Structures are given as C-alpha cells and as structure tokens.
Amino acid sequence: MKSAYEIIKRPLITEKFSKQQENFNKIAFEVDKHANKIEIKRAIKDIFNVKVIKIASMNIEGKKKRLGVHQGKRVDRKKVIVTLAKGETIDIIGG
Question: Model's pTM, two decimal places?
Fold first, then answer.
C-alpha cells in the first residue's frame, strides 16, 4: 500500500482552479496514475485533515512531440478535482 504522499504528487494551481476554489470549494491535484478514488480520498483526508465530498478524476494522455526525425511523447498523468465539505479549506500557497 502506498503512502498518502506517494499518491498525491502536487496541487495544480491555475487561474481556472483558483476560481473554482473560491466559488465552489474545489481543489485540483495531480496524483499517481494507478491510484483509485478511494485511495485518493483517504490520502487527502490524511494529509490535510479535511472532509471530502466528491472526487472527479481524469486521465490525461501525454502529447506526441517530434524534433526533426525523432519522435517522442510527454508523460501520461492523472488529474483529480476534489470537492470539499462546506467550511473546509486547504491553504496550498500558505503552507
């Protein structure tokens, strides 16, 4: 079983997700590709000590890139949007 810090890789801080955090109490994270919703919910609960209502997960396929005759591909990743209960907050920037 993976630890909570191996499952949650990093928060995604963009303008869109900042507005979602303010208006709908939703926060986005990049997580391990093989983690399921139950493991993600448990990891967020352990790390931040908050109540999670809903998790929406997305698998994002890496873009194909080429440089001359060489072809490559960016890394596949998994992104989740976590909806927190009313009154719960996670201060990502403040620490």
Answer: 0.87
